[in-house]
Design a protein that fits this description.
The chain is mainly α and 64 residues long. It has one domain. 67% of the residues lie in helices and 0% in strands. It has helices at residues 3-11, 21-27, 31-40, 42-51, 56-62. Helix 3 runs antiparallel to helix 4. The radius of gyration is 11 Å and the shape is globular. The N and C termini lie far apart (22 Å).
Amino acid sequence: MTDEEIHKKINQIEGIGGMTVNERLFATNLRDSFDNAQKTDKDLARRILSALKVDDYSITKILK
């Protein structure tokens, strides 16, 4: 998955800032991509969370 594909999915959703991380992943249809990346490609998982506007502290905790 490219950064462009990630951002395209995110830009289709309004009010993403008021959602939990799981809600953001579900609303953008990135849940499966994130789950797979979390197991095999931590850099992609980090980029997905960052694009979803998750703060660095939370990203670090999630990817532990």
